Every structure is written in structure tokens, then in C-alpha cells.
Amino acid sequence: MYDFAYHKPTSVADAVKLLADPDAKAVSGGHTLLPALKHRLNKPTALVDLSGIAEMTGIKRVGNAIVIGALTRHAEVANSAEVKAAIPALAYMASHIGDLQVRNRGTIGGSVANNDPAADYPSAVVALGATIHTSKRKIAADDFFLGMFTTALEADEILTAVEFPIVDKAGYAKMRNPASRYVMAGVFVAKAGGTVRVAVVGAAPCVFRQAEMEAALTSNWSADAVAGIKQDADGLNGDIHGSAEYRAHLVGVMAKRAIVAAG
Fold it and tell me: Please, which of 5, 127, 222, 261 could form a disulfide with 171 given CB 3.0 to 4.6 Å?
């Protein structure tokens, strides 16, 4: 590593001021930034540790939604009685992120703001139609994820919480790399009244909605409804772990499993 200033603010306002420096970087769980620092792929002049900001932690029900502070650990989401009762698929997802060490260190805000193509949470955010709360505004899920590792967050803007609407049914299924545990293809399905949303992660450079499956499930909520739908492999990820065609096939398999899990 190399020298940099270290700050640990206790409020969102103070953190935003520190991040006005274009060479400063925010850090929460550190799963992405710290390895980048070790390999000198990122060289900030200052690290702004968000872990001391109490207002960015916790899980609560507000009306017909679950609001989760950005610094809430994956393990806390997985074990939350509030989340299990309201959106069990979200608790299930959190319980299967990485391994025990990752779940006890990683945060929902860090995962969503980083927008790794192989992260789990973006699919839940998009499928559930969540709202991203920041230090400046609120951003709809469909407007937040812009591309690989790219979001609508501005340089001095901090993700403070994620608001998940409580839906009628939801389910999640994924195929993960057995070594890294990163998602090769994951599908989150959600049904709220007459609206169905299907979000896919891992298979492409960025989370996306599967419109054809959404239309089919709106007419017939069952695994059979999507059995004949083939995901187009164009634009999907392909690497030593699996080709684009393989990931396209996985999208269909995981979608059916997610629907069964949703009930």
C-alpha cells in the first residue's frame, strides 16, 4: 500500500464534505476497495470510513416497505425477523451471499453502490422496485444501475438507505462459481398485484429486467410460463467459467427455480 489520509466521520453531512475531494474514496465493508488498494489499482489521497455513521445503519418497517440502512451487514439482513416476515426472499438472498466472513463484513450499501455484475443485491433492488436513498435525493431502481460498476450516484453523493416495497410474492435463485462464490447467473422474481418484475444478475455486465418473462408471468404465474423463453446470449458475459450461451441457459433455469421458491 501507500500513504493516504484516513477519516471516520460520524454524520452523513461530514462524510459528504470530505468526499468533495475528487481523490477521496468512501469505504464501508471494503471488499472491493481494499483489494484494489493492495494491488495499487486505486490510489486515493484519502479514505472516508463510513462505519461510524449511526444514521446509516438498521432495518425498519415504514408503512408498506422495509428500509435498510446502507451500512447494514448482509448477515443482519439475513437474520432480521422484520425482513423474514415481510420479504423472505430478500433474507434468503442475503443468507447466501459469499461466505460467513463476507456476510459479517459486507454491507448492502457498498454492494448496491459498487454495482459489481456478479453481485446479488442489484437483482433484488430492481425486481422489488426499490428506491435508493442518498445524501441528496431518492432514485428509482430502474434509473440507478447504468452499467458495469456504474450507477447514478454523483461523486460527492452517498447512498444512505434502500427502501424495498413489500410485495405479494418474491423468489431468488442463482448459480454461483464454486470457488469465488460470485454469481454466474441469478434471477429475482417479484409479483405485486398485477405487476411482475424479473431481474437478472451475473449473466451480463449490468443487472437487467427480462421483459419477455415478465409478460409471460403476468398472464400465468408459474414456472411453466417461462419454460419456453430463451434468453438471448448477445451481450452476455463469457469467460473461463462459462460462455455467454451457458449463462443464457442458466437464466432460464434460475428463473424457473426462483418462481418455484416464490410459491
Answer: 261
